[in-house]
């Protein structure tokens, strides 16, 4: 029988620390270290250069010089990135409240603390690129063009939800966004297929196939890696490592917690996922790399969720409260970007407060509209809607009995 000492067991249960590991540099989560190379221009649309900290990235089978630390941004882009993160967090907090009021039922997975990943990726790609992710998907749905009303409406099961109220938290779709998928890791091979389609049709676009550290050990993930490498598919396999797969710390579930090295024969890039600018820079490189014919790339976004795995998980039984408070107080992605914007003179504190107020007011108004929306009608027509593309449907679908056979309008 396997035995272990109590001291060894306690050691195995300790959370992994972030910073320097065994004397070598590790990716930092500090979101406020970067500097402007030149004076910030008055023109809000004019680009200026900033330098990211070297600790923002780690590399596997990649030349660091190819990625670089220099990034071009504008005042308007920084303002929009800040606005987007504030809006996503406000939306998630609204979902938290509605769930606790029992207006949202079933599963609900929030991304509070992880906003920089969705925002950084979206600002690096175009609407013609594609994103597919797991069930912590509200922020991605918003960044891909979904409205707050449609996302909250979906959570509430309302008719004008992003999937007509039929999908809920784990099944959201928009143009260029293929979900929100509830089966652990299943979105990864689907993402590889979407990437393959982009290459097959000769389009200069890539696909971000995102998954969590908890899904990283799924066999289908490695199968997707293999096929994508063989066929040089333009796909980015992105692991959102928020340190816990449900209630299990990464070091307790994975023999190798350096997820960006999991591709083995695929180059990897580890990124500070609490820094929207680092995510932006890395994602720009990842798109250029994958559409250039070099094949797939594995990325690891080192991030952190403030809440539990889902709304049914308090998130404090398997990690100390002090850890959560430390992350919120010192490594928050919104506070980090806010500090840079002020330090660089992009916006003043008063101007940022106005951005906060605007984002919160718009989110709150759309949440109110979503609550007032009607639920789907309780009819067979509504039930069988959206199964087929209009015009491709068969004459009828059989039900459990002859009486339940549904005939499509031809």
TrEMBL record:
Its cofactor is thiamine diphosphate. It holds the Pfam family E1_dh. It comes from the Eukaryota. InterPro entries: DH_E1, PDH_E1_Alpha_Subunit, THDP-binding. Residues 83-376 form the Dehydrogenase E1 component domain. CDD domains: TPP_E1_PDC_ADC_BCADC (cd02000). It is an enzyme of class 1 (oxidoreductase). Its EC number is 1.2.4.1. One of its GO terms (molecular function) is pyruvate dehydrogenase (acetyl-transferring) activity. GO terms for biological process: pyruvate decarboxylation to acetyl-CoA. Keywords: Oxidoreductase, Thiamine pyrophosphate. This is Pyruvate dehydrogenase E1 component subunit alpha, mitochondrial. It comes from Ascobolus immersus RN42.
């Amino acid at each position: 029988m396997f035995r272990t000492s109590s001291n060894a067991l306690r050691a195995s249960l300790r959370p992994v620390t972030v910073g320097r590991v065994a004397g070598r540099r590790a990716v930092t989560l500090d979101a406020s270290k970067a500097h402007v190379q030149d004076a910030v221009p008055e023109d809000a649309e004019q680009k200026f250069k900033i330098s990211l900290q070297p600790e923002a990235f780690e590399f596997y089978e990649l030349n660091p010089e190819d990625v670089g630390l220099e990034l071009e941004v504008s005042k308007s882009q920084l303002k929009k990135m800040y606005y987007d993160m504030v809006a996503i967090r406000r939306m998630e907090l609204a979902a938290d409240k509605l769930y606790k009021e029992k207006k949202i039922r079933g599963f609900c997975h929030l991304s509070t603390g992880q906003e920089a990943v969705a925002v950084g990726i979206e600002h690096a790609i175009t609407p013609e690129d594609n994103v597919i992710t797991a069930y912590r998907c509200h922020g991605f749905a918003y960044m891909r063009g979904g409205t707050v009303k449609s996302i909250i409406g979906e959570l509430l099961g309302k008719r004008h939800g992003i999937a007509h109220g039929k999908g809920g938290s784990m099944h959201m779709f928009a143009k260029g966004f293929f979900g929100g998928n509830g089966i652990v890791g299943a979105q990864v091979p689907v993402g590889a297929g979407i990437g393959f389609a982009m290459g097959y049709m000769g389009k200069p676009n890539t696909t971000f196939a995102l998954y969590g550290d908890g899904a990283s050990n799924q066999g289908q993930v490695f199968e997707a890696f293999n096929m994508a490498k063989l066929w040089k598919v333009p796909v980015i396999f992105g692991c959102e490592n928020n340190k816990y797969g449900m209630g299990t710390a990464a070091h307790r579930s994975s023999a190798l917690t350096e997820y960006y090295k999991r591709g083995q024969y695929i180059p990897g890039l580890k990124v500070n996922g609490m820094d929207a600018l680092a995510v932006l820079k890395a994602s720009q490189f990842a798109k250029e790399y994958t559409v250039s014919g070099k094949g797939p790339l594995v990325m690891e976004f080192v991030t952190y969720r403030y809440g539990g795995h889902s709304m049914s998980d308090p998130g404090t039984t398997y990690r100390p409260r002090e850890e959560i408070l430390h992350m919120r107080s010192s490594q928050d992605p919104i506070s980090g970007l806010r500090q840079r914007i002020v330090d660089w003179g992009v916006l003043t504190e008063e101007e940022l407060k106005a951005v906060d107020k605007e984002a919160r007011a718009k989110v709150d108004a759309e949440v109110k509209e979503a609550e007032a929306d009607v639920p789907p009608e309780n009819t067979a027509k509504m039930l069988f809607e959206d199964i087929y593309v209009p015009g491709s449907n068969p004459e009828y679908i059989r039900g459990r009995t002859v009486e339940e056979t549904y005939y499509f309008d031809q």
